[in-house]
Design a protein that fits this description.
The complex is a heterodimer of chains A (202) and B (120).
Chain A lengths: L19 E8 L6 H8 L5 E6 H5 L15 E10 L4 E8 L6 H8 L4 E7 L7 H10 L3 E6 L10 H8 L7 E4 L4 H17 L7
Parallel strand pairs in A: 1-4, 1-5, 5-6, 6-7
Antiparallel strand pairs in A: 2-3, 3-4
Chain B lengths: L12 H4 L16 E4 L10 H9 L5 E2 H8 L3 H13 L3 E4 L10 H15 L2
Antiparallel strand pairs in B: 1-2, 1-3
Classes of the chains: A alpha/beta (202), B mainly alpha (120).
């Protein structure tokens, strides 16, 4: 998107105004549009880190274990938005399969909340993700990413029932390719975080 | 999430740290902000530490961003950054601490900031 803080140095370096760094997880199954959403709002070209699954799963940074030689890695995309007032918001694209549980726990540590993306053509693909988020206690909102070739079969009520959402969990529709629509989905999550009263235990 | 975009890094992760597996400081997180201290760079600095210092030349980066730029695992960058901190070549600023529930004022400013982006 066109937004670029005036005080920033060129490229990837943090703006001089950066004070508070916060993160939100963009969670969902493969192909649901996590990277698309991050790309549509990020001020930097989305980057990724290679994360080792088995390393994360034993919770140590053990780089020399012989038995770990066949470690699989997964690329975790992230993007960044510098907000007025010195807040820098990081978005992490987080996969939702059970085998990513340890990685999920590490990345979700300290996150404000999660935006769970649901593919309007494959709702059941997000069940694992929702289970993982709920178990972690991280507050979340659900965004139905609408794909052009997906006729809407479901009413909001049917969707809520299918996803087994709590009454106060926000459910919004978004187009991950569109920056304004993606920001609206993020706003629905942040408003939910503000409205949670009293705060639930995490 | 996507597959690898770049090629294989020139230096494998386990060699980049000189075989050190754990950082000398445990508190370096993904969103810890690293910046160069401006101290003169001593001769004989390991290449991977030098690469991290170079990346910080134009401004600050989080551990996360440094890992992405250097194509190294976050865990390796933690080790490198801790080594540079020990030598006084890098400064680190911790992210806001994780909380049971975040400061409502912070959340409100995040919301206001997002709204401001929409009207830009």
């Amino acid at each position: 998107m066109a937004y670029a803080p005036s005080s920033t140095t060129s490229g990837i370096h943090l703006p001089d105004t950066a004070q508070e760094l916060v993160k939100i997880l963009i969670a969902g199954p493969f192909g649901v549009g996590k990277t698309t959403l991050i790309d549509s709002v990020s001020e930097i070209r989305p980057l990724h880190t290679e994360e080792r699954l088995t390393e994360a799963s034993v919770h140590v940074d053990d780089l020399d274990g012989v038995r770990e030689k066949s470690t699989t890695t997964v690329a975790i995309d992230f993007g960044r938005l510098s907000l007025p007032g010195g807040i820098v918001l990081y978005l992490f694209g987080t996969p939702g399969q059970e085998r990513f549980r340890a990685l999920w726990e590490e990345i979700s540590h300290g996150a404000l909340g999660a935006l769970v993306l649901v593919d309007s053509r494959r709702i059941d693909a997000s069940f694992d993700m929702l289970g993982l988020v709920e178990e972690s206690g991280l507050p979340y909102a659900v965004a139905l990413n609408t794909f052009p070739d997906a006729p809407r079969h479901h009413t909001d009520e049917q969707l809520r029932a299918a996803l087994d959402l709590a009454p106060d969990t926000p459910l919004v529709t978004c187009d991950a390719r569109d920056a304004e629509s993606s920001i609206d989905a993020l706003l629905a999550l942040v408003q939910h975080l503000i409205d949670r009263d009293p705060p639930e235990h995490r | 999430m996507t597959g690898r975009r770049g090629g294989r890094p020139l230096v494998p992760a386990y060699l980049s740290t000189g075989g050190v597996a754990r950082p000398s400081r445990p508190q370096l997180e993904r969103l810890t902000v690293l910046s160069g201290s401006g101290e003169p760079v001593p001769a004989g600095l390991p290449a991977a530490q030098l690469a991290l210092l170079d990346a910080l030349f134009g401004g600050s980066l989080t551990v996360l961003e440094a890992a992405a730029l250097l194509e190294l695992p976050v865990s390796a960058v933690r080790v490198l950054a801790a080594g540079l901190l020990d030598r006084g070549l890098v400064l680190a600023r911790a992210p806001i601490p994780p909380a049971e529930s975040f400061d409502p004022d912070l959340l409100k400013r995040v919301a206001d900031g997002l709204r401001a982006l929409k009207h830009d």
